[in-house]
Amino acid sequence: MEYGVILPSLLSFSLLLLMAAVRAQMPGFVSLDCGGRANFTDDLGLRWTPDDQLLYGETTNISVANETRKQYQTLRFFPADNRKYCYTLKVISRTRYLVRATFLYGNFDNNNVYPKFDISLGATHWATIVVSDASTIEFQELIFLALDSTISVCLSNATTGQAFISTLELRQFNGSVYLTQYESQFYLSTSARINFGADSEAPIRYPDDPFDRIWESDSLKKANYLVDVASGTEKISTRMPINVNTGERPPQKVMQTAMVGRNGSLTYRLNLDGFPGFGWAFTYFAEIESLGPNETRKFRLVLPGMPDLSKPVVNIQENAQGKYRLYEPGYYNISLPFVLSFRFGKTSDSSMGPLLNAMEINKYIKKSDGSIDESVIASVISLYPSADWAQEGGDPCLPVPWSWVQCNSDPQPRIVKIILSEKNLTGNIPSDLTKLIGVVELWLDGNLLTGPIPDFSRCMDLKIIHLENNQLTGELPSFLVDLPNLRELYVQNNKLSGTVPSHLVDRNLILNYTGNINLHKGNNRGSHIKIIIGSSVGAAVMLVATIASCLLMHKEKMKYLKQDQLEHTKHTQRLVLSLGDGANEAAHCFALSELEDATRKFEKKVGSGGFGVVYYGKLKDGNEIAVKVLTSNSYQGKREFSNEVTLLSRIHHRNLVQFLGYCQEEGKSILVYELMHNGTLKEHLYGPRTHEQSISWIKRLEIAEDTAKEKLIGLLCPLACLGIEYLHTGCVPSIIHRDLKTSNILLDKNMRAKVSDFGLSKLAVEGASHVSSIVRGTVGYYISQQLTDKSDVYSFGVILLELISGQEAISNESFGVNCRNIVQWAKLHIENGDIQGIIDPSLHDEYDIQSMWKIAEKALMCVQPHGNTRPSMSEVLKEIQDAISIEKGADVVREGNSDEISRNSMHSSLVMGGSLDLGDHCLSIDESSAQPTAR
Ligand SMILES: *[C@@H]1O[C@H](CO)[C@@H](O)[C@H](O)[C@H]1NC(C)=O
Ligand SMILES: *[C@@H]1O[C@H](CO)[C@@H](O)[C@H](O)[C@H]1NC(C)=O
Ligand SMILES: *[C@@H]1O[C@H](CO)[C@@H](O)[C@H](O)[C@H]1NC(C)=O
Ligand SMILES: *[C@@H]1O[C@H](CO)[C@@H](O)[C@H](O)[C@H]1NC(C)=O
Ligand SMILES: *[C@@H]1O[C@H](CO)[C@@H](O)[C@H](O)[C@H]1NC(C)=O
Ligand SMILES: *[C@@H]1O[C@H](CO)[C@@H](O)[C@H](O)[C@H]1NC(C)=O
């Protein structure tokens, strides 16, 4: 029996189901009832499907007192062997999901020891499931960004008892609440998601939470949470609606309850599964009590041993800008212990004690890099879509290898043995097998393989080759002679022809080639000549191989060296940026003459500013380029300039204008970039290109999205730079962004935006100073909201307003009397509900008013006078993406509120501040504080 599995038909029918059941549950939900036999919809409206397509494992019924849910009446269990058993689920690449596996033991095996086994996601060890009680549901959740079109959840390593599973649930997010800078390297594993002041012990989940996260009741774990309960701790609740901004925040029902510390303190102690370690921790607050006019509620978080965390003061009403509104401070990366004791304590000038509605703590789990051969072997097994052995799922080597594969024990393992004997393989020997360069033993005997023996000459470790009992044709290839470690070669009973290289016969090799009618041992004379030719060729090959491997080893060594050096900034390093390893990443050096030819002696000027004049150029190969001749000659030293340029060349990101090379000759310092055909955003919105063709609203949103994405990684540049610091001393931090403005946003042929002018360190000194001090102090790890550069958010808000209105940020004419500034002008209109008053007339009503409101509202939040009240860049990005999906008509499956309702609620939330007097307000704003510049 084979143990592979994939669920193609199951998956496709569950997708079909989803289509039919949009009303019943969110799209992107998969709920597998393991061991179940029928489809059903539960009381919550979740649609469950059985895992009956699974080829292995056994199913059984269980019965646990008080557990009546149908999905917990059955389970599937697996043999206690050294294999892994995988569920493969379809996902949408570049989308965030929550995956939840649950386990209710129910004493299914009547064993007197509780099972203990491992669960993994792909190659990554996810958790060890330890059953401690027959009637308690264990569960594990991971939040991850799908990078592929499938995921595998595998059970393995049953240390005691048998591995089993009750349910497997997949929930798709549609936004970026869980976006972190680390998500390409780490998963988030849920440790705590707590609803404080809960009405009952029942958790809050779907449909209250549209993503079916489980918000556990704090009353359930009272014993644990409230070990040293502070006096005056009380439960409060409200029925008032709470503005939670977007659906990925805690659902309203969670926010409507809270605990308060009437005597000034709230204390908690909780066990954090999976910790100690680094985690993502957010608290959720909403003011749900009526504070008198001169009452305040201000408090601080106190964590033993972490005095820095006690500095920020929470003032919910002020931070959230009103009552019944969500405020969600937190840390993207914080080191937490297993037993977390914390206190919220009121400040001395506060009249009310602290309040806490909810909190969420996730642990970072390092993603395994997977085995080296994963993609090669994936293309091999794709040739056998219906073979069981090709469908075991997950990584070929990790956490345990497939049944027909053996791997070495390197951290990133290689396949060393392939055992595909007697698997009815047809066709040629898959040529991808020759790319498994670590393979030592190859067993392909007893199949129906035809065609020639492919060239395994790169697999220098090959020791044992079994090809017997197939229908292979052609000659015994000569590379076999050169495999230095070959000890056994079995090719009997094939249709091979020609002569056996006598070198093969002579050497100390077990060779069986009987049963090949046309294959003969070569005669002595012929083979003698062959040996000579063979060996001289062989020697040459050996020589080349030796040189090559020396070079390779040298390079590998260098790589390890650097890896060591970079170890401590590893995560930040490998985020969205791809940083070259230096060896082959040196910037291209253009000859001045080449650039003179390309630009026809700097004939056509296409832009200026940012320390130089930019010229159009076309290289001999036809590629168009932008050539920036730097005016400032701050780079006297040739080496200094090229060091800087090397750094520039290490930063690649799809939303950054690509740096192609440089030139420094005859006192000129020149930078070469890819040509952005459509010039700057500024030119299109209110510059010379306005009349070409107005940019549609959805295009503008996409431009905003591109820019926001770049901004998110922009922050990381200086961090990434820390790693390089070791290689190039003096780089702290060299690469930073200058102000975001429409003249720095360039548009390519397809009107996608890229950000330019990520300056050289020298050129960008002014901007760099504040960043460098933060970064120096934190060495990579502590990236929290504090590091979120709120001045960028301000600049970005201004850009959003420019995109909405097509107006320049500062203008003497456009904004009426006494008002020179887009922020003041837009604020007045938006807060008065008059969004039409600012929308660019050239958009001609071709937009969805709801998406327009979304962006306008967010833009206003971005330009709040105080940095700490501005949203984070990732929140803004999420809003833009929402607006894009509204424009694309993706809102049909949204929850059923009509446009009318949401528009009204947006108005009311904005107008809450009271009606505004146009003229006065505009005058009263301090000009300097409203300047759309970075601060
Ligand atoms: C579940 O529903 C799908 C689609 O409605 C159907 O194809 C499938 O056969 C059902 N499975 C069972 C076990 O009833
Ligand atoms: C099961 O339900 C009964 C009655 O509702 C209750 O007394 C008992 O404590 C419950 N047992 C468990 C394990 O929850
Ligand atoms: C299996 O589990 C045991 C105990 O939990 C652990 O020591 C061992 O390393 C695990 N083996 C693998 C291959 O993960
Ligand atoms: C508000 O402040 C005034 C003057 O300081 C004081 O008299 C009054 O008692 C306060 N009211 C409350 C509810 O604290
Ligand atoms: C190979 O094919 C034969 C005949 O169809 C079948 O009996 C055997 O089970 C197959 N073996 C494998 C490993 O699929
Ligand atoms: C070679 O293979 C044939 C057929 O499998 C077998 O009968 C013979 O014993 C083998 N010879 C040696 C030397 O192993």
UniProtKB/TrEMBL annotation:
<dbReference type="GO" id="GO:0005524">
    <property type="term" value="F:ATP binding"/>
</dbReference>
<keyword id="KW-0547">Nucleotide-binding</keyword>
<dbReference type="InterPro" id="IPR032675">
    <property type="entry name" value="LRR_dom_sf"/>
</dbReference>
<keyword id="KW-0677">Repeat</keyword>
<feature type="domain" description="Protein kinase">
    <location>
        <begin position="600"/>
        <end position="884"/>
    </location>
</feature>
<dbReference type="InterPro" id="IPR008271">
    <property type="entry name" value="Ser/Thr_kinase_AS"/>
</dbReference>
<dbReference type="InterPro" id="IPR017441">
    <property type="entry name" value="Protein_kinase_ATP_BS"/>
</dbReference>
<dbReference type="InterPro" id="IPR024788">
    <property type="entry name" value="Malectin-like_Carb-bd_dom"/>
</dbReference>
<dbReference type="GO" id="GO:0016020">
    <property type="term" value="C:membrane"/>
</dbReference>
<dbReference type="GO" id="GO:0004674">
    <property type="term" value="F:protein serine/threonine kinase activity"/>
</dbReference>
<keyword id="KW-0808">Transferase</keyword>
<dbReference type="InterPro" id="IPR001245">
    <property type="entry name" value="Ser-Thr/Tyr_kinase_cat_dom"/>
</dbReference>
<keyword id="KW-0433">Leucine-rich repeat</keyword>
<feature type="transmembrane region" description="Helical">
    <location>
        <begin position="531"/>
        <end position="553"/>
    </location>
</feature>
<protein>
    <recommendedName>
        <fullName>non-specific serine/threonine protein kinase</fullName>
        <ecNumber>2.7.11.1</ecNumber>
    </recommendedName>
</protein>
<dbReference type="InterPro" id="IPR000719">
    <property type="entry name" value="Prot_kinase_dom"/>
</dbReference>
<feature type="signal peptide">
    <location>
        <begin position="1"/>
        <end position="24"/>
    </location>
</feature>
<dbReference type="InterPro" id="IPR001611">
    <property type="entry name" value="Leu-rich_rpt"/>
</dbReference>
<feature type="binding site">
    <location>
        <position position="628"/>
    </location>
    <ligand>
        <name>ATP</name>
    </ligand>
</feature>
<dbReference type="Pfam" id="PF00560">
    <property type="entry name" value="LRR_1"/>
</dbReference>
<keyword id="KW-0418">Kinase</keyword>
<keyword id="KW-0723">Serine/threonine-protein kinase</keyword>
<dbReference type="Pfam" id="PF07714">
    <property type="entry name" value="PK_Tyr_Ser-Thr"/>
</dbReference>
<keyword id="KW-0472">Membrane</keyword>
<keyword id="KW-1133">Transmembrane helix</keyword>
<keyword id="KW-0812">Transmembrane</keyword>
<dbReference type="InterPro" id="IPR011009">
    <property type="entry name" value="Kinase-like_dom_sf"/>
</dbReference>
<keyword id="KW-0067">ATP-binding</keyword>
<keyword id="KW-0732">Signal</keyword>
<dbReference type="Pfam" id="PF12819">
    <property type="entry name" value="Malectin_like"/>
</dbReference>
